[in-house]
Design a protein that fits this description.
two-stranded antiparallel ribbon, mainly alpha, three-stranded antiparallel β-sheet, about 375 residues
Length: about 375
């Protein structure tokens, strides 16, 4: 009888799931809730007779966002491409709707909804654009390296970015930044992107004269010019536009190396307006010092590292571009927020991801993380 050879068992593919990224998001969200309570307890007690008012609202939305994130992470990300064009068109519909019937707060129409049930359509636009551009670039293939391909992406981005920027300049900048990062990764030629980077730095260096010229030709509003003037010399406007900037800088400076201690901020006592929102990083610096501020930055850098790892090992270009788009969004938003708080750039009013108070922001950020985890879940490992 012929000798039977042992049958080799094939290695079963095992799917990867980035728990490191998941735990990082959970940590940042919980840390954000602690800092929101610390930064807002004084104002919330006076206004709502409940020191935990803002924290409780954020916690409820964050919990719902976490459920959405887990559900999305278990879905096949290729499914998004089928609805990318519909989502893109819906972005225009929502932005037009918010300009017509949106809720006005602090002189700006940025919310849609009824009463307390409202959301900012700009957050939806960011997610829709990431999916749209990822599907678009994949469909173009190598043509993305041609002028026509790059121009197509620009034409898909600039109109919606312009509509958003008309009412929310910071979100408009982020939308352009997302497209810039995705194009940078997709295109072979890198020098045009570096040239754009140098141009942006030059623009920032001569922001004052440029802004005055744009006001004269009615391309810039007076309040936007005042922001640039305040950025250049906040001490000259201590009781008006420079008040928030100066109080934020005082908070950062008074924190020292290890801070005053959690909950011991003085600037949150009505000095820094809406401390739980855009300026929460200054409260982190005051209460936790340089050590806490650097730790937060390092955690975000670790998150970016996980994004890069997932994008590098993604099963296909679609998955890689989705991750790159989310990475660009979060990285740009973190950089802009910290730059504004430290008065490195003019005040644009932007939140710190997962930490600042803002239900719409955290909900859609969770959805984006769900997409990234969904891509990681399609990475196969041999065991």
């Amino acid at each position: 009888m012929a000798e039977r050879r042992p049958v080799k068992k094939k290695n079963k593919p095992r799917r990867f799931y980035d728990y490191s990224l998941l735990f990082t998001v959970i940590f940042l969200t919980v840390f954000g809730l602690v800092m929101i309570y610390s930064a807002s307890s004084y104002a919330a007690q006076i206004k709502f007779s409940n020191a935990a008012y803002f924290m409780e609202r954020q916690a409820m939305i964050a919990l719902g966002g976490f459920v959405v994130m887990i559900i999305i992470s278990k879905m096949d990300y290729h499914w998004y491409a089928k609805f990318s064009l519909l989502a893109y068109v819906l972005s225009y519909v929502l932005m037009i709707a918010v300009s017509l019937v949106g809720q006005e707060r602090n002189g700006k129409k940025r919310w849609l909804g009824v009463g307390s049930l409202s959301f900012q359509p700009t957050e939806f636009v960011k997610v829709a654009l990431i999916v749209m551009l990822a599907a678009m670039i994949v469909q173009m293939g190598r043509n993305i390296n041609t002028r026509k391909g790059v121009l197509s992406v620009i034409l898909a981005t600039v109109p919606i970015a312009g509509i958003v920027a008309a009412n929310n300049l910071s979100s408009g900048i982020i939308i352009v930044g997302i497209a810039f990062v995705m194009l940078f990764v997709a295109c072979k030629k890198k020098w045009p992107f570096f040239a754009c980077g140098f141009f942006a730095v030059a623009l920032l260096a001569f922001a004052g004269p440029i802004a005055e010229f744009l006001v004269k030709i009615n391309l810039l509003h007076d309040y936007q010019l005042s922001r640039i003037l305040v950025w250049q010399e906040p001490e000259a406007y201590p009781s008006t536009g420079g008040f928030q900037v100066l109080q934020g800088l005082y908070a950062i400076g008074s924190g020292g190396l290890v801070g005053r201690g959690l909950g011991e901020s003085i600037q949150k006592m009505g000095f820094v307006p809406e401390a739980q929102n855009d300026m929460i990083f200054s409260i982190i610096c005051e209460e936790l010092g340089l050590f806490g501020a650097v730790s937060v930055i390092l955690i975000f850098l670790f998150m970016i590292y996980r994004f890069m790892l997932i994008a590098d090992n993604a099963p296909d270009l679609m998955g890689a571009l989705l991750v790159v788009g989310v990475m660009g969004h979060i990285a740009i938003q973190v950089i802009l927020n910290i730059a504004v708080v430290t008065n490195t750039i003019p005040n644009t009013g932007i939140t710190l991801p997962f930490i600042s108070y803002g239900g719409t922001s955290v909900l859609f950020l969770m959805a984006e993380i769900g997409m990234v985890l969904g891509v990681s879940n399609q990475i196969r490992l041999e065991v």
